[in-house]
Design goal:
Blueprint: E1 2-6, E2 10-17, E3 20-28, E4 79-82, E5 93-101, E6 120-129, E7 134-143, E8 149-157, E9 163-175, E10 181-188, E11 191-199, E12 204-208, E13 221-225, E14 236-242, E15 247-253, E16 259-265, E17 272-274, E18 279-281, E19 284-290, H1 293-308, E20 322-324, H2 326-329, H3 335-348, E21 352-355, H4 383-393, E22 397-402, E23 406-407, H5 412-416, E24 436-437, H6 443-458, E25 464-467, H7 489-507, E26 512-515, H8 525-530, E27 533-535, H9 542-552, E28 561-566, H10 579-586, E29 590-594, H11 602-624, E30 626-631, E31 638-644, E32 650-657, E33 668-669, E34 679-682, E35 688-690, H12 691-696, E36 699-700, E37 709-717
Helix pairs in contact: 6-7, 9-10
C-alpha cells in the first residue's frame, strides 16, 4: 500500500512494507510514483533482522516514517514509551488509514487552519502496538492554496496498563543520502536569528531549547539544503514546529550516509503519563519543499503563516504606525511626559501610542509589582480610562504593555500566593530580572490572570497589547502536580499559556496583540497563532536589525516583524546611524518609533513626518507583498531586499551600506519578482524600465562617502 501526498510543487511518498510504514520520497513533484528507486534490502553487517527469512529486512536500515527504538533500529527514535514493567520496547505496525476533506483542530494547541473543507485534504494513518494497546495516529494535511504539508501525532493508550511517554516528536524524515547543508538559527538576547549553514558530517547534531521557551538562542526550525542551493535555485527542505516551549531538532547521519531528521517537544526532562483511555497530542510540524531555493521556501512559509496561522481582525488589516515610550522614559514615566510625547506623535501622523512597563503597582524599577495589575496613581493620577480617552481625543489609538506570566517577590500577589510560581520543594527560587515565573499549569493562576488582565482591558479603550515575557524557566515544578507527573510541568505550562491567550484574545477581538519575550525570545509559529506580530528584538540598532530581520524573514512574514526607530547613540550598542537609515530599516516591517520625540530638532521631526507619510503609502506592499532577499548581510557589508505586490503591479527596493570603503566597486540592486514583460515607472524620477531590465541589469546604487547609508527605489507598473 502506498500513500502519495501532492503539494503544488512537491511529492511526499510513503509505503507499507511487512506492516511497517516506510518513507520513500520527499522532493520535486512527480505525477505518479512507481518505485523507480525501491528501498534497498541489502544485508548489512551487525543488522538484526525482523524476519530471518528476509535477511535484508532490518529496521536499522529501513527508511521508517515514525521510528521506534529497541527492536532493531539503532538511530534516534521519533517516540519512546515506557511500560509498567519498566521496559521501553514497542513495535508499531500499520492498522488502517482514512482520507477526508479539511483539516482538524489540535486539542489545546495552535496549528495552521483552513476556512473551508475545500482548502485542504487530510490523511490519518493508524499505527498500533499489539502488546500494549498503544495506538499512534499520524495526521498529514495538504493545502490547496499553500505549498506545504502539516503533520502531527496523537498517542492513545487503549490498553489496560499505564504507559509513560518519554519522547513524542512531531515529525521524522529519513533521507536516502547525506548530500545536504543544514541551516539553523542561533543567537542571544538582542542578537537573535543569526544564520548558521554548514555541510552535514558523520555525526548527530542537536538544536534545542531547555529554557521553557523557544528562546533567543535557537528557533524551532531547520532546513536541509542541497550544497548548491541559494536564494533562487536549488532544493530546500524546511521543517517548522508550531510550538513555543522546549523543542529539539535532531539531524543524524548514519554509517551508510543516510539522514534522519526530526523535530518536536524536547525529550530532555519530559515525560507524560498515559493512563488507560488517555491520549497525548503533539504540536504540529509544517514541512515545506522548494525547488526554487531559500526564496521559494520563505514564500511558502510567509503565505501560509500570514493567512492560515495568524488569526483575527488584524490578520488582513494594515498595522498601525506606533510610538512606544520605553526608551524615552523607561520607568520614569509621568502623565505629563506621556502626553507631551503623544502630542508630537500626533503631529507626525503616528497612529498608536503604546504605554510600556512601569504603569502599575509601585513599579519604579524591575524589582517589584509584576502580578499586581492595578494602575499606579502616582504616575497616572487621572487613571487609565482618562489617559486612553485623552489620547483618543488627540486622534491616537492606545496600547498597553503587560507581562502576565511573571510575578515579583515584592508584590501583593506573591505575598498572598507564594506557591503560585514554578518551584520545587526545599530548593532556592532562582530569580531572573528579579522575577519568578507563574505556574500556568494551574487553573487558579490562569483564572487570576484572565480576570486581572481583562479588568484593565475592559476599563479603558485599549487598542493594542504588548504581551512580554522577560525570563526563562528554572526550578520547573508545580505544587499541584503529583510526583509522577512533575516532568509534565513545562508542557502543561505551554498548554496553560495557550488557553490563557485564547481566552483573552477571544474576549477582546478588536485589540491588536503583539507577542514579546525580551524581544525575539519567543518568536515562533505557536505565538503567531494568537498574536499576529512579534517584537523582533530589543536591539533597535539599524545595523544590527539588518541581520536580525534578514534571518527572521527566512520563515516569518514581514507582517509579523515589529521594527522601530530609536534614538542615537543606540541604547543597546552605542552606534550612531542616520535617521534615514534607521527609518528604512524599520520600514521593512511593522513600523514604529521608540524614542523621545520632544527632544528632537525641528529638522528631525520633519524627517519623521515624511517617513510616516511615506510608510503609509507603502504599508500594504510591506505588510502583504512578497518579500525577496537580495544581498545577505552575513556575507558582506551590504544588505538589500525588495517587496513586490502579489499582482506584480508595484515594487519597492531597499539597499543598505554599513561601512564605507576606499575605491569602492560599483553596486547595483537587481529586483526580483517583477513581471518581465511589463514597464515600470520610477515614482521618484518618472523614468520607466522593463521588469526584465530591473531584474537582470538592476539599478545603480549612488556613490556616496560615509558610513551607514541607505537608499530606496519605488516602481509602479505603467
Amino acid at each position: 500500500m502506498q500513500f502519495h501526498l501532492h503539494t503544488e510543487s512537491g511529492s511526499y511518498v510513503m509505503q507499507v512494507t511487512e506492516g511497517y510504514l516506510l518513507h520513500l520520497y520527499w522532493g520535486k513533484k512527480v505525477g505518479t510514483y512507481r518505485g523507480s528507486s525501491p528501498v534497498s534490502l541489502a544485508p548489512r553487517s551487525f543488522a538484526p533482522y525482523t524476519d530471518p527469512a528476509q535477511p535484508g529486512l532490518s529496521l536499522s536500515t529501513l527508511p521508517l516514517e515514525y521510528p521506534s527504538y529497541g527492536n532493531g533500529d539503532y538511530r534516534h527514535p521519533a517516540y519512546q514509551m515506557q511500560l509498567d514493567n519498566g521496559s521501553t520496547v514497542t513495535d508499531l505496525r500499520y492498522a488502517g488509514h482514512r482520507i477526508y476533506p479539511g483539516k482538524k483542530k489540535l486539542d489545546g494547541l495552535p496549528a495552521t487552519y483552513v476556512e473551508s473543507n475545500q482548502e485542504a485534504q487530510s490523511l490519518d494513518i493508524l499505527l498500533q502496538d499489539q502488546v500494549t494497546g498503544l495506538s499512534v495516529l499520524l495526521t498529514y494535511s495538504v493545502f490547496r492554496d499553500f505549498d506545504a504539508i502539516a503533520r502531527s501525532v496523537r498517542f492513545e493508550n487503549n490498553g489496560a496498563e499505564s504507559l509513560r511517554l518519554l519522547r513524542a516528536l512531531s515529525a521524522s524524515v529519513d533521507f536516502r543520502d547525506d548530500q545536504f547543508d543544514i541551516l539553523t538559527f542561533y543567537g542571544s538576547h538582542s542578537n537573535e536569528r543569526n544564520i548558521n549553514r554548514h555541510p552535514l558530517s558523520m555525526e548527530t547534531q542537536v538544536i534545542d531549547s531547555t529554557r521553557g521557551a523557544s528562546s533567543h538562542q535557537h528557533d524551532p526550525f531547520f532546513a536541509l539544503l542541497r550544497p548548491n542551493t541559494d536564494e533562487e535555485h536549488g532544493d530546500a527542505f524546511g521543517c517548522s514546529l508550531v510550538y513555543s516551549g522546549n523543542f529539539a531538532t535532531q539531524i543524524e547521519v548514519d554509517p551508510y550516509h543516510t539522514v534522519r531528521a526530526s523535530i518536536g517537544i524536547n525529550p530532555f526532562d519530559f515525560s507524560w503519563l498515559l493512563e488507560p483511555g488517555e491520549s497525548f497530542q503533539t504540536p504540529e510540524a509544517v514541512m515545506v519543499y522548494s525547488s526554487r531555493g531559500l526564496g521559494g521556501l520563505s514564500h511558502a512559509y510567509h503565505h501560509l503563516y500570514r493567512t492560515r496561522l495568524a488569526r483575527g481582525k488584524y490578520r488582513d488589516r494594515p498595522r498601525p504606525v506606533l510610538i512606544n515610550n520605553w526608551e524615552a522614559t523607561y520607568f520614569k514615566l509621568s502623565e505629563e511626559k506621556l502626553l507631551a510625547i503623544a502630542g508630537e506623535a500626533q503631529k507626525a501622523g503616528i497612529e498608536l501610542f503604546v504605554l510600556d512597563d512601569g504603569w502599575f503597582g509601585h513599579r519604579d524599577n524591575d524589582h517589584s509589582s509584576l502580578g499586581d495589575w492595578t494602575v499606579d496613581r502616582r504616575k497616572l493620577p487621572h487613571g487609565m480610562h482618562w489617559l486612553s480617552a485623552h489620547l483618543h481625543e488627540m486622534g491616537l489609538k492606545f496600547g498597553l504593555w503587560f507581562e502576565p506570566e511573571m510575578v515579583s517577590p515584592d508584590s501583593d500577589l506573591y505575598r498572598a500566593h507564594p506557591d503560585w510560581c514554578l518551584h520545587v520543594p526545599d530548593r532556592p527560587r532562582t530569580l531572573g530580572r528579579n522575577q519568578l515565573v507563574l505556574d500556568l499549569s494551574r487553573a487558579d493562576v490562569r483564572d487570576y490572570l484572565a480576570q486581572s488582565v481583562s479588568a484593565v482591558l475592559a476599563g479603558a479603550d485599549i487598542n493594542y497589547v504588548k504581551w512580554d515575557m522577560n525570563r526563562h524557566m528554572t526550578e520547573i515544578g508545580s505544587a499541584l502536580l503529583p510526583t509522577g507527573r512533575q516532568r509534565e510541568t513545562a508542557h502543561r505550562y505551554m498548554l496553560g499559556l495557550y488557553e490563557l491567550m485564547e481566552t483573552i484574545t477571544a474576549q477582546f477581538p478588536d485589540i491588536l496583540f503583539e507577542s514579546c519575550s525580551g524581544g525575539g525570545g519567543r518568536f515562533d509559529p505557536g505565538m503567531l497563532y494568537y498574536m499576529p506580530q512579534t517584537w523582533t528584538s530589543d536591539n533597535t540598532d539599524a545595523v544590527s536589525r539588518l541581520k536580525i530581520q534578514y534571518g527572521t524573514s527566512l520563515i516569518y512574514p514581514p507582517s509579523s516583524i515589529g521594527a522601530h526607530v530609536s534614538a542615537v547613540p543606540n541604547h543597546q550598542v552605542g552606534r550612531v546611524t542616520s535617521l534615514v537609515m534607521r527609518g528604512h530599516a524599520a520600514m521593512s516591517g511593522n513600523f514604529g518609533y521608540e524614542l523621545d520625540l520632544t527632544r528632537l530638532s525641528e529638522d528631525e521631526k520633519e524627517t519623521i513626518r515624511k517617513q510616516v507619510t511615506f510608510y503609509k503609502q507603502i504599508r500594504p506592499l510591506i505588510q502583504f507583498g512578497d518579500f525577496y532577499r537580495i544581498k545577505d548581510p552575513f556575507e558582506g557589508g551590504a544588505t538589500a531586499w525588495c517587496f513586490v505586490a502579489p499582482d506584480h503591479s508595484e515594487a519597492i527596493g531597499f539597499y543598505f551600506q554599513v561601512l564605507a570603503e576606499p575605491s569602492p566597486r560599483l553596486q547595483t540592486l537587481k529586483f526580483r519578482g517583477l513581471d518581465p514583460d511589463a514597464l515600470y515607472e520610477n515614482l521618484a524620477t518618472d523614468d520607466a524600465f522593463g521588469g526584465d531590465e530591473l531584474m537582470n541589469a538592476g539599478v545603480s546604487v549612488p556613490e556616496e562617502k560615509g558610513d551607514f547609508k541607505s537608499y530606496v527605489w519605488r516602481f509602479r507598473k505603467k
